[in-house]
Design goal:
Blueprint: E1 2-4, H1 7-18, H2 25-44, E2 52-57, H3 61-74, E3 79-84, H4 91-99, E4 103-104, E5 114-118, H5 130-136, E6 151-155, E7 183-187, H6 197-202, E8 205-209, E9 223-225, H7 228-234, E10 249-253, H8 260-272, E11 277-281, H9 285-291, E12 296-298, E13 309-312, H10 320-331, E14 336-338, H11 341-346, H12 352-356, E15 362-364, H13 368-375, H14 383-394, E16 397-400, E17 406-408, E18 414-416, H15 429-442, H16 447-466, H17 473-485
Parallel strand pairs: 2-3, 2-5, 3-4, 5-6, 6-7, 7-8, 9-18, 10-11, 10-13, 11-12, 13-14, 14-15, 15-16
Antiparallel strand pairs: 1-9, 16-17, 17-18
Helix pairs in contact: 2-3, 3-4, 7-16, 8-9, 8-15, 8-17, 15-16, 15-17, 16-17
Length: about 500
């Protein structure tokens, strides 16, 4: 997993490292990585020599990084212009740029192949100033030598975003007051705004440049990003002695006469996972068996037989019959996934004692509106902190769904999923996710790893399904199989 660090930790690491280096070394390392990536982008736009670059320069170190990178590019034959967005700039960086042939300009003007965003860095708060915001909103008008929109390269992170939360402040017009980058070159460490919240979508492709910071990063990361190699390591292995019961049995209590599709979809997600058998309990058993004949179906949780984990809630309803099934699931001494209607049934607090009295893990999977019903307020600007608060309150792993799904654990650890896609914002895809997650729990995967793995693979399946056009939940079930086949 990739670690993500808060501003205070990054600053402390930078201070420690700079104390061992000649003055200016760290900025030169950053500028070298930035100039290298800029040259690669220019090469894609018609060549480095003769390329046209605009630097947006603030008063801080990010502005200095941009100026020194501009110097390096100018010495390679790039026409570099700098727009100073404050009354002052990094003096030595500005002198170096001028000595290399760079020039200052009063406003953006084309043609521009590449824009380097060095307005503000990790010290920035509260969005962009009005003058900088006005320039940023016009970047889309700039065109390069090829007539295409100028590429935007952010220095360490897009200017204007809230670094530690991934929140993006809004301008008075209601639009985001931050840079939208095509590529971000991050120095030394990932920051939360690059991987979580609406800011992550503004970062574009993120490239991490090693400037020697890693040995100096201390303490606990703010969160971690799940990677393919993690999912491979955590995935249960089959052996010569494996059989359906040893692989785990997952119980699925979902769907109803009103919503039989929720049962079909959640069972489909469970069947795609690593367990050897799925038991379905509910009133949609005829539809489930028609679609999935390998499932063992019964009418009630009490009649389902032994399982190693339960999935409960999707399409279950919120009446007394549904509440009785949820109580039966919570009474079982096995891990449970609570989704959709099961979360609604928890809101009045009548089942709080059953939650607190459980020793086996609980995973809850709210989207924002379900989170608000559970907590009385939306997740807000800091989605990681919100997920962790709910996890501590419920003593459960919280999978807070979204474009960058956040997983929070009761002991304060947080993970973020990088594979999310807006294509999954359609009815029933959460049912598929819950089924897959339950299958992982039944196979013996710890709750935090099961949640991180399920979100990661579900996101990949959404991307795979989107290749064929608009995505439906059955498409995601189908796409899970080729995705999981790559686990090998």
């Amino acid at each position: 997993m990739r670690a993500v660090w808060r501003v205070a930790d990054v600053r402390a690491a930078e201070a420690g490292l700079m104390g061992t280096l000649p003055e200016g070394t760290l900025m030169q390392r950053a500028a070298a990585g930035l100039a290298r990536r800029a040259a690669l982008l220019l090469a894609e736009r018609g060549g480095v020599y003769g390329g046209r670059v605009l630097l947006l320069v603030g008063s801080g170190d990010n502005g200095g990084d941009a100026l020194y990178a501009g110097e390096r590019l100018a010495r390679r034959g790039v026409q570099v212009s700098a727009l100073l967005l404050t009354g002052r700039a990094h003096a030595a960086g500005l002198a170096a740029l001028r000595a290399a042939g760079g020039r200052l300009v009063p406003r953006p003007a084309g043609p521009v192949d590449l824009v380097l965003d060095g307005i503000v860095g990790i010290g920035g708060t509260g969005g962009l100033r009005a003058s900088a915001d006005e320039v940023v909103q016009r970047l889309g008008e700039l065109r390069g030598r090829d007539g295409e929109r100028a590429t935007v390269l952010a220095v360490d992170l897009p200017s204007g975003v809230a670094v530690d939360t991934g929140h993006v402040p809004l301008a008075s017009s209601g639009r985001p007051s931050a840079v939208r980058a095509d590529v971000t070159v991050a120095f030394g460490a990932l920051k939360p705004a690059l991987v979580v919240g609406p800011a992550a979508a503004l970062a574009g492709h993120v490239e991490l440049v090693d400037i020697g910071l890693r040995p100096w990063l201390r303490g606990t990361p703010a969160l971690r990003v799940t990677e393919w190699s993690d999912v491979v390591d955590w995935w249960p292995e089959l052996g010569p002695a494996s059989e359906k019961y040893s692989r785990g049995v997952v119980g699925v209590s979902t769907g109803s006469a009103t919503y039989p599709g929720a049962a079909v979809l959640s069972v489909g997600g469970a069947l795609a996972g690593p367990t050897g058998l799925v038991r379905y309990a509910g009133s949609a058993r005829a539809e489930v068996l028609h679609q999935h004949p390998s499932v063992i179906a019964s009418g009630r949780v009490a009649d389902a037989g032994r399982v190693q984990a339960w999935v409960c809630g999707s399409g279950l309803g919120t009446g007394e019959d549904a509440a009785a099934e949820l109580r039966a699931v919570l009474a079982a001494p096995v891990p449970v996934v609570l989704d959709a209607d099961a979360l609604t049934l928890l809101v009045d607090g009548s089942l709080a004692d059953r939650l607190r009295g459980r020793d086996a893990p609980i995973v809850v999977t709210p989207h924002d509106r379900e989170f608000a019903r559970l907590c009385g307020e939306e997740p807000g600007a800091d989605r990681v902190a919100s997920a962790l608060r709910l996890a501590a309150w419920m003593n459960a792993v919280v999978l807070l769904k979204g474009d960058r799904t956040v997983i929070g654990t009761p002991d304060g650890r947080a993970f973020v999923n990088p594979t999310g896609t807006p294509a999954l914002a359609t009815g029933g895809t959460g049912d598929v996710l819950a089924g897959l997650l339950g299958s992982l729990l039944a196979a013996g995967v710890p709750a935090d790893r099961a949640a991180a793995s399920a979100a990661y693979l579900h996101g990949l399946a959404g991307r795979e399904a989107a290749r064929g056009g608009p995505v439906t939940a059955p498409d995601v079930v189908t796409a899970l199989r080729p995705v999981l086949a790559r686990l090998g």
